[in-house]
Amino acid sequence: MKKEHITIYSFLFFLIFSYNPCKADIISNSLDYNVKVFGFTDPLFTGKKIMSIVVYAPDVPLDERADVEGAAVDLLKALGINATRGIEVIPPTRDDQADEILSSSEAEATLLVKTIELGFEERSTKTHVTKDFRTGEETTLPGRTWKTPLGKFNIELRTNVNRTVLWRATSVAKGNYKIGIAGAAISGAINTLRKDGLI
After folding, report:
1. Which residues pair with 27 in a beta bridge?
2. pLDDT tens digits for 153-176?
3. Which range of residues forms the domain containing residue 160?
4. How far is Cα 173 from Cα 77, in angstroms, rounded to an integer?
5. Cα dihedral 91, 92, 97, 99 sign
6. Which residues pair with residue 39 across a beta bridge?
7. Where are the alpha helices (DSSP H) in 58-179?
8. CA angle 169, 23, 50 (to 5 degrees)
9. Could you give the residue ranges of the DSSP H alpha helices within the chain?
10. pTM for the full model?
11. What CATH number corresponds to the domain at position 48?
């Protein structure tokens, strides 16, 4: 089991080409965030490269799904992968037919995202009392509470022909992002896939 702590910087990824047009650096800006990914590659598929992927996140709310899948597709394309949003391949009204539809897809594999847990991490500071030693007057500073969105997701890379699982991971994201907690978790998983050599 492999544990990686991946620090990424927002979701506004863009490409800078060097003298070698096949080589690109993924660069980003805006908010920084932390994603922890625990991934495992099936030993039979170590070193296998997947060049076309459908990003499928059926658990993500419908009003967010196109954007979340789209952000992942943009990142995969920047890495040279032919990627498609799941919502374009599998209509939300046919999620129960996903396996059948994907088996006839032109893409080699699907990055399947399933929600394990969504919630908040709460942090608080204690009430603090300060005293003016000249006047003896005391001032009470109330404590503060912060709630940070937290999400845990199961993410699998599966072949579309026979639904064989090539790679499986738990991705945990924490923070506030323009693209949402699911988008952060998926981007972290994609970076781990890249480091594991599957894309």
Report:
1. 14
2. 999 999 999 999 999 999 999 887
3. 2-195
4. 22
5. positive
6. 2, 169
7. 62-78, 86-89, 98-103
8. 35
9. 62-78, 86-89, 98-103, 180-195
10. 0.74
11. 3.30.160
